[in-house]
Amino acid sequence: MKSKLRKGFKDLRWRVSVYRAKRARAKSKATFIGVTGSSGKSTVTALLGHILAAHRPVYTQVLANTLHSVVSALYRRMKQVERADYVVMETGAYGVDSIRPMAEMLQPHVAVVTMVRLEHVASFRTLENVAAEKRALVAALRPGGLAVLNADDPYVADMAAGAGCRVVTFGAAQTADYRVTDIHAAYPDRLTFSIHWRGGLLQIETSFPAEYFWLPTVAAVATALELGVPSDKVVAQVATFQPVVNRCAMLITEGGPQFILDVAKAPWHSINLALDMMAKATAIRKRIVIGQISDYTGSSRKYAHAYQTARDIADQVIYTGDNAHRSRASQSDRDSGQFVELRTVKEVSDHIKRTAVPGELILVKSSSNLHLERIALAWTHDVKCWIPVCGKAEGCQTCGMYELPYEQHRAHVMLRRRTRMWRQFRGMFGGRSS
């Protein structure tokens, strides 16, 4: 009986939340921009918000890309949304028909699609199914809307057919409305490239350490220019933007290693991109740490292929996590130290601290569940949370409790919550006279 009541109350709360969110969306006069794609959507969303913020008020929601987070943002942050001229939100696909309800809630004026790759294999199975899921954002555009599409990806380019909206394209293709050339990045040289568009030529300088970030960058640039942001302002804002946390973000330690943290997600199509970045980089020594590869389907080939590529690039390759044994590294590589297998994040951190060389470059690549960002954070903080898998979707930087043992997290959260409630109580009644 109690469980039924709880379920009923939970359902009622959700219905009320959806109703309030729809009301907030209806009241807002802002231009709504939805961003989706198998990769790059968080960077597009954050960078576009950064560009637009220099032009007009903007509300940006990055990383939180589920229906629950969209609904929550619309009704809990209603005032922020109402004050904004632009609302930029990413929408993620976690299963069949997961984007459509988000898109219908957003009713976007602009839809940006970065790429289609095989992700969440158990749910989608084929690229065609992924493309159909992403297309839902374009299909939900308001009348007179704008679709900003990747001209180099046939699955994305096909979304223009029958869209019934204005379409602009970006990419390296000759036919792209925003055509990219002269791409260069070789760490420590950061990403630069040129954009050819109807307004002429733009020279883009960024803080990204890898070439492949040209795609989300030009997607954000094209969208901002189509929304009327002056080109000089766009170029200046791109130059000051820092990578999204754990998405090829840099951590340069004093007298220690330089870390590139690419630990937010690791679909198979992203592995070679990260390794290519390391191949082009220049450093006194290179090491690569590989954790969990996303969408793992049971075969060891992905880990073995990744190792064979990484070993030709780095002075040392370190595998960690439950699949660390799947590298198929030879015994001679193990004996020489070319390959190191360590099961826990703490062991990797301790190993790197023992063997670090000042100025060496270390790529840390994994999906988010292992929280390998702790390896780098341990150089600047007293990290005490070393639980192998905590179950939290957010990164350690966002969680902020990595200096506490995991066993103390719950008590810390409860204390913080009580403190906040007490402050609210004092604010309501503390100023009254007797």
UniProtKB/TrEMBL annotation:
GO molecular function ontology, one term from the record: acid-amino acid ligase activity
Cited Pfam families: Mur_ligase_M
Domain Mur ligase central: 35-223
Keywords: ATP-binding, Ligase, Nucleotide-binding
CDD domains reported for this sequence: SIMIBI
Gene3D superfamilies, sorted: Mur ligase, C-terminal domain, Mur-like, catalytic domain
Protein name, entry field: UDP-N-acetylmuramoyl-tripeptide--D-alanyl-D-alanine ligase
Species, as recorded: Mesorhizobium erdmanii
